[in-house]
Amino acid sequence: MKRKLILLSLFLIALLFVSGCWNRRELNDLAITVGMGIDKSGENYRVSTQVVIPSQVAGKKGGIQTPVTMYKETGESLLEAIRKMTTASPRKIYASHLRVLVLGESLAREGIGDALDLLSRDQELRTDFFIVIAKKTTAEKTLKILTQLEKIPSVNMFASLETSEKSWAPTTTITLDQLIAELLSEGKHPVLTGIQVIGSQEIGETSENLDQIDPSAKVKYSGLAVFKKDKLIGWLNEEESKAYTYINDEIKSTVGVITCPEGGKLSLEMMHSKTTVKGSVTGNQPTINIGIRAQMNIAEVQCSVDLTKTETIAELEKLSNQKLEGFIEASIKKVQRKYKVDIFGFGDIIHRTHPKAWKKLKKDWDQNFTKMPVTVKVDSRIRHLGAVSSSLLKDMEKKE
Amino acid sequence: MLDNRKISPRQYYIMVSLYIIGSAILVIPATLAIEAKQDAWIAEIIAVAVGLLILPFYIQLGNRFAPMTFVQYTEKVLGKWPGKIFSLLFIAGFPFLSASLTLRNVGDFMTTQVLPETPIEAIHIFFLCVVILGIRYGLEPVARTAELLFPFVILSFLLLVILIAPQIEFKNILPVMENGMKPVLRAAIPHIAFPFLEPIILILLFPYINRSQESGKALFTGMVIAGVVMIVITVLAVLVLGINTGRLAYPSYILGRKINIGHFLQRIEIMMALIWMITNFIRLTLLFYISAMSIAQTFKVKDFRFLTFPLAIIIFILSIETIPNSVYLQELVKIWPWYALTFALGFPLLLLGVAVLRKK
C-alpha cells in the first residue's frame, strides 16, 4: 500500500514535467505568414513574407501601424532564405496559414519547378493557398501594397481571387496540388492567374494608401499566364482567359454582352454553365468537341427589343451562342498559333478516353495540338428577364 | 502462468481487422500508385481477393495447431530441440521483425507529418510504453480495448469518407488499365505480402479463442472488414488525389488534410492520424504479444511478462538501427514479398510436410 502511494506520488510529480508536447509552439512565438513572394535575384532566390501583426488586426481598435510586416531575405535555396529571416524577425516563420503565394514574373519565365519542391515537401504548408503570378512586377512589390476592406493584404488577395472566379470568370484559383498535377500531366500545361499593381507603388506601401477613399495603389487580377511546362511564356487577355475558364468548366457566373439585332447592347448574366469536352481519334487525327450548356438571365437591356415575344428570346439565344462560340474558338486558335502549348488539357482528355491512340500521340503532343481541329457548340437558354419584362427604351418609344 | 483468460471470436475479428488495417492504410495507396498509377484501386482489389483466397489454407493450419500452441505443435512434430529452433527462427524472423518495422512506421509518420522536431526515439519510447502496459495486462484486456476503440475507428473512417466525397473527380480514374495488367500485378504483389500474408501470425492466437470452432470464421470476417476499408481508401485516394497519389508519402493523411467544408470544417487530418495510431497500437501489441508469448513457451518460462522489457529494448534498437532513413523502407518493399513468403509459405509447408511424413 505504502509502496503504491509513493509510486503514485512519483508519477504525479513526473506529470508536472511531461505536460504538453515536444514540438509545441505557442501562438506568441509564431510569425504567422499569410503571404509569400518568391523572386529571382541572380542565381539566388529572394523570398519575402508577409507576416501578420496580431495586435493590429485584433479587435476594433484599428491601428496607426500597418497590419502586416514584411521580412525578406536572399538565399541559394528557399529554406535558407526563410530561415535567414530569423536574423531580423523575433519569431520563426510559420506557414500553415499561408493564403497566397506570389511568384515574380521573371522567376516564372525561368521556371517555377525548383521553387515548388520545398513547398510540397515541407509538412507545415497546407495545399489550400492560391498561387498567382506578379505581372510586370516582382512578388515582393505586390505583397507590399496595403489594402482597405480586408486589412491583411494577402487575405484581400485570396478573397478577391475567390470572388472574381465565382462571379466574373477570367481568373482561376489554382492550389499547389492542382499545379503539381498539371506539371506532371503529359496532356496539359499549367495556367496561373496574374496579379498587377495599379497606381503608385510608393504610396501603396504606406498607410497613406489607407486614408484615401480611392486608394492610390491597388492590386488587381488581370489575365492568365500561359506556361510551357514550368516556364511562363505569355499572357492571355481577358476574353481569352474567359474562354479558358469556359473550356475547363470553371464558370460559376459571369456576364456576357451581346449586340442586339437593331444595334445597342444587351447583357446576359450567366446563372449556370456546364461544359463537356469530348475527344475522339480517327486514324491518327485527334479532334475535340466542346459542348457548353448555359443558362442565363437577361440582366441589362440597352436596346429596344420586344422581350414579350418568344421569337425575340430565341433570337437572343442564337446571338449569345454565336458570340460565345466565336470568342472561344478564336481564343483556342490563338493559343494554338501563338503559344503552341496545350493549356486546355485536351491531351489529358484524349489520354483518359483513348489511351491506345494517346501512346502514339503523346510524343509530340504540342505539335499535334496546334494542328488539331476543335469545334465549339454552345446551347444558351434564357430563363428569366429580371424584375421587369420589357425594355425601358421600348417603353419610352411607345410614349412618344 | 501463461495468460489463461481467453478472448471471444468477436474480439478476435476486431483485433484482426485493426491489425490488418494497421500500418498499411496510410502508405498502401502510394505504394500501389507508384506502379499502377490510376489503376491502384484494381491492384488493391486483386490483393484483397488473393488475400482472402489463401486464407482457408491458414485457417486449416490454425485449426490443425489448436488447441496446442504453435510452439507446442512444432515441438511435437519436429521433436524437442529442432522444434524449439524452428519456432524461434520463425518468431524472430517474422512477427518480431514486423513489430520493429511497425514501430518505425509510427515514428516515421509522426516525425515527417506531425512532430517534425521531436526526436524519433522519444516517439518510439512512449509508444512502446503503452504497448508494454497492454501486454503485461494480458491478451484479454487488450482485446477489450480493441473492442472499445473499434467503433471509433470505423466512425472516423466513415466521417472521412463522407467529408472528402465532395472532392471526388471521377475523371481521375480514367484511363482504366492503360498499360495492361502488368503494372497492376507488379503493384499488387508487394501488397499481398504486406499485410495479406500475415494471417500466418494471427493464427498463432487460435488457442486463446474460447469458442475454437468459430476461430476460422472470425479470422475471415476480420480480413473482410480490413479489405473493404483498404479498398475504399485506395479508391478515394485515386479519385481525389489523382496523379499526385504516388508522389505522396502518406496519401490517406493528405486526404484528411484536403477536407474543407465551406471554409469551416477543415484541418481535421489529425483524425486520420488517430485512426492510424489506434490500428498500429493493436498491430504492434499483437506482434509483440505473440513474440513474447512464444519465446516464453519455447524456454518454458513461467511468466512471460519479465520478457517484455528486454524484448522492448531489442525492438526499439531494431526500429532505429535497421532503417537508417525512410528511403530504406521503400527499398524494403521490393524484397519484402520474397522474405514474407519464406515465413508465410515456406515455414508452414515444411512443418506440414514433416507432420504428414511422421503422421503426427
TrEMBL record, chain A:
It comes from the Bacteria. Residues 222-386 form the Spore germination GerAC-like C-terminal domain. The keyword Cytoplasm does not apply. It is found in: Membrane. InterPro entries: GerAC_N (IPR057336), Spore_GerAC-like (IPR008844), Spore_GerAC-like_C (IPR046953), Spore_GerAC_C_sf (IPR038501). Keywords: Germination, Lipoprotein, Membrane, Palmitate, Signal. It is a lipid-anchor. Residues 23-196 form the Spore germination protein N-terminal domain. Gene3D superfamilies: Nutrient germinant receptor protein C, domain 1 (6.20.190.10), Nutrient germinant receptor protein C, domain 3 (3.30.300.210). The keyword Membrane applies. Belongs to the GerABKC lipoprotein family. This is Ger(X)C family spore germination protein. It comes from Paenibacillus mendelii. The lineage of its organism: Bacteria, Bacillati, Bacillota, Bacilli, Bacillales.
From TrEMBL, chain B:
Its main location: membrane. The chain crosses the membrane at residues 12-34, 40-61, 81-102, 122-139, 148-168, 188-206, 218-243, 270-292, 304-323, 335-357. Keywords: Germination, Membrane, Transmembrane, Transmembrane helix, Transport. It is found in: Membrane. It is a multi-pass membrane protein. Belongs to the amino acid-polyamine-organocation (APC) superfamily. Spore germination protein (SGP) (TC 2.A.3.9) family. This is Endospore germination permease. It comes from Paenibacillus mendelii.
